[in-house]
């Protein structure tokens, strides 16, 4: 039996179909609303608008649930590699041993980048933010590695090429920014080990693989791999709907992720902690300011637009954070302030009543700092982790037989029609 919602206006009725998802989520299908009534809906920020049907990620903000392709993110963080998670998101299932081996070989084969790309990096101003550079460089990949057509195998090569090269490009940008020799990927290292080695290996001090750091990075990237229709993912889908090349679509996602209200939040956490430290380490003052509705100050890394309970990723990241700091025995005043701030905030009635729990950005900023990642590279780390999700979302939208170019509407509130006034007659 079909389910409908009836819309009534001025005596006219219209039946709007109800769409039910596999987890019981319900939506009212308004796709024919304008054609039949002349009306559109108004939803600033799209907070109540479903832009697509998707089989990739399920979230329940009220219950604190996050699953990739049906698998709880807690299980993936505990048992899966990042490569397995990427394969799962893009292909819809976990790989068997043969598929994973083939995927690993393809990642290794595509991990090097064209030597001419170094020239691009070296011509960016030294003060350029790594996210701006990464967005531009991913777009530039189209010139070096054209898309390979529409065959499934060729599309897979393009997607794998992005997963392999973005990691290398991120480490390369860090090395070039410091004036150091670029370190190339090694076929004997895992995806996460390779990145840390490319970042921190030097001729005078070879990088020693640290298990705790590698595991923390693995979990960090898995927890960031996808998060439903967020700002950057929606950007990838919207730009991709114009049938641009995959590189351009991913570049738009990187640009969207750059914002401090999105991927830049983990960097903002460390900058906030630095400000607190520079002001004498008085985190109690910061908490009181955050509670003052007349003060524009915000505690970065607390609360979430979707989760109305504890962010499930934050629980995992907190555990990883505690294990990493205990393993590395780091003496860092900034990390001490972070832990003290967390302990006070999670018990404060104001934060509890307003669901302002520490989110993943709070703990991930601490973890990345402990690993040794520079603060301005934090959002780049997020982008590497989110890449499989962006690719999966782009691929799903391209495979949708009901594809349409994204074209939101608006309600015009400007001037009514009036005649042009010559310049000599204007007041």
TrEMBL record:
Substrates-to-products reaction catalysed: oxaloacetate + acetyl-CoA + H2O = citrate + CoA + H(+)
Gene3D superfamilies per the UniProt record, alphabetical: 2.20.28.60, Citrate Synthase, domain 1 (1.10.580.10), Cytochrome P450-Terp, domain 2 (1.10.230.10)
Pathway: Carbohydrate metabolism; tricarboxylic acid cycle; isocitrate from oxaloacetate: step 1/2
A single GO cellular-component term on record: cytoplasm
Active-site annotation: 304, 361
CDD domains the record matches: EcCS_like
Keyword Transferase: yes
InterPro entries given in the database record: Citrate_synth-like_lrg_a-sub, Citrate_synth-like_sm_a-sub, Citrate_synthase, Citrate_synthase_AS, Citrate_synthase_bac-typ, Citrate_synthase_sf, Citrate_synthase_typ-I
Gene Ontology molecular function: citrate synthase activity
Recorded coiled-coil stretches: none
Top-level lineage group: Bacteria
GO biological process: tricarboxylic acid cycle
Keywords recorded for this protein, A-Z: Transferase, Tricarboxylic acid cycle
Protein family (similarity comment): Belongs to the citrate synthase family.
NCBIfam families in alphabetical order: cit_synth_I, PRK05614.1
Protein name: Citrate synthase
Organism whose genome encodes this protein: Desulfosarcina widdelii
């Amino acid at each position: 039996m079909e389910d409908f919602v009836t819309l009534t206006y001025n005596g006219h009725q219209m039946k709007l179909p109800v769409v039910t998802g596999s987890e019981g989520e319900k939506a009212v299908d308004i796709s024919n609303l304008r054609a039949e009534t002349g009306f559109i809906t108004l939803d600033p920020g799209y907070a109540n608008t479903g832009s697509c049907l998707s089989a990739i990620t399920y979230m329940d903000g009220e219950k604190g649930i996050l699953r990739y392709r049906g698998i709880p993110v807690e299980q993936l963080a505990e048992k899966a590699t990042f490569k397995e998670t990427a394969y799962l998101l893009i292909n819809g299932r976990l790989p068997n041993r043969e598929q994973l081996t083939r995927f690993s070989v393809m990642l290794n084969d595509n991990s090097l980048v064209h030597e001419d790309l170094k020239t691009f990096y070296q011509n960016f101003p030294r003060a350029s933010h790594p996210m701006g550079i990464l967005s531009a460089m991913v777009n530039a990949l189209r010139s070096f590695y054209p898309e390979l057509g529409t065959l499934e195998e060729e599309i897979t090569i393009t997607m794998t090429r992005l997963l392999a090269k973005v990691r290398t490009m991120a480490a390369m940008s860090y090395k070039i920014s410091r004036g150091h020799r670029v370190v190339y990927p090694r076929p004997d290292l895992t995806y996460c080990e390779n990145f840390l080695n490319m970042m921190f290996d030097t001729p005078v001090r070879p990088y020693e693989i640290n298990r705790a750091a590698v595991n923390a990075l693995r979990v960090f990237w898995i927890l960031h791999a996808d998060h439903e229709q967020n700002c950057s993912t929606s950007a990838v889908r919207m730009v991709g709907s114009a049938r641009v090349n995959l590189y351009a679509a991913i570049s738009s996602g990187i640009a969207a992720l750059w914002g401090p209200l999105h991927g830049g939040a983990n960097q903002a956490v460390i900058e906030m902690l630095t400000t607190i430290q520079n002001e004498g380490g008085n985190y109690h003052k910061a908490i009181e300011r955050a509670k003052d509705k007349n003060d524009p100050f915000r505690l970065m890394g607390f609360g979430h637009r979707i989760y109305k309970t504890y962010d499930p990723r934050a629980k995992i990241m907190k555990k990883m954070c505690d294990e990493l700091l205990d393993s590395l025995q780091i003496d860092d005043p900034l990390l001490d302030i972070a832990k003290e701030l967390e302990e006070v905030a999670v018990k404060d009635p104001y934060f509890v009543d307003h669901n302002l729990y520490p989110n993943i950005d709070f703990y991930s900023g601490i973890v990345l700092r402990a690993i040794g990642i520079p603060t301005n590279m934090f959002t780049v780390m997020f982008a590497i982790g989110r890449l499989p999700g962006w690719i999966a979302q782009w691929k799903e939208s391209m495979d949708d037989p009901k594809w349409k170019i994204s074209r939101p509407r608006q309600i015009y509130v400007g001037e009514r029609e009036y005649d042009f006034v010559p310049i000599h007659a204007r007041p």
